[in-house]
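Figure 3 (text version): structure tokens given as input.
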């Protein structure tokens, strides 16, 4: 009767071999989960924002994965021998982890540094005039918090931080975020070499493929926008049923929601005051 038992298979999507006695190897095992985590982020952002730009970027990410799938079966280069002996599956050239992570980092950087055009400021005209009168021509900054505390205590600090949080990211801040994404991509790529799943050549090839794919996809989406194809697609009934919109390129979605909440809150307070009169 035992002869009829079907042997079980392992779902290798998150199955990573690492050295439990090596902290770096343990860290690399978690870095191997970054692509899966990013897919969850994509899905969450799509559901919560319904933004066309997020959808376009996710479609580009999936296209990049398809390119990796094709390249591996065209090149047919094996992984390092010791990985194959421990059960590693699939071809190794180019590294899909490196390609995925680099595409994400480059695509995010291109969006933040090239495509995203945030408004100059979200703070009200009165707040801006007050900041300028107090010597802050560029708007509120974190470096001014100590001076605010000396001038007006915690109340002044709170007002200053609120004004700062309503200021769009500067070019420098967007550059820092883009650089941080690049560092994450480099760590993911390096982890594949450290764990022994790929050779340096395979990881470099995957990184190059990811970067080229991201730049090419950015050019494609630029043409889609400039030719009006995106605007045309957003008029389709399905897009309207799903409430797909294209705002994040020029607006801060968090700020838009906050302004709506502020209007409702102020209206509720005014009604309460009238009622208590």
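Below: residues designed for each position.
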């Amino acid at each position: 009767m035992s002869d009829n038992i079907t042997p079980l298979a392992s779902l290798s999507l998150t199955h990573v071999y690492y050295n439990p006695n090596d902290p770096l190897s343990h860290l690399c095992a978690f870095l191997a989960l970054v692509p899966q985590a990013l897919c969850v982020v994509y899905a969450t952002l799509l559901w919560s924002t319904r933004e066309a730009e997020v959808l376009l970027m996710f479609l580009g990410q999936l296209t990049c994965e398809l390119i990796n799938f094709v390249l591996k079966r065209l090149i047919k280069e094996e992984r390092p021998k010791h990985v194959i002996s421990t059960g590693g599956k699939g071809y190794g050239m180019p590294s899909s982890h490196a390609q995925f992570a680099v595409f994400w980092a480059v695509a995010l950087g291109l969006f933040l540094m090239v495509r995203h055009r945030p408004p100059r400021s979200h703070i009200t005209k009165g707040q801006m005039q007050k900041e300028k009168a107090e010597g802050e021509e560029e708007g509120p900054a974190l470096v001014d918090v100590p001076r605010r505390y000396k001038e007006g205590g915690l109340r002044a600090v709170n007002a200053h931080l609120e004004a700062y949080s309503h200021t769009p990211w500067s070019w420098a801040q967007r550059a820092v975020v883009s650089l941080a994404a690049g560092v994450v991509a480099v760590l993911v790529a390096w982890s594949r070499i450290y764990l022994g799943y790929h050779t340096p050549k395979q990881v470099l090839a995957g990184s190059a493929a990811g970067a080229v794919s991201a730049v090419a996809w950015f050019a494609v989406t630029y043409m889609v926008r400039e030719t009006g194809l995106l605007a045309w697609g957003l008029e389709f009934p399905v897009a309207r049923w799903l409430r797909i919109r294209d705002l994040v390129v020029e607006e801060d979605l968090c700020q838009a929601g906050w302004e709506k909440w502020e209007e409702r809150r102020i209206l509720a307070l005014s009604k309460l005051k009238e009622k208590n009169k």
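The mean pLDDT is 80.
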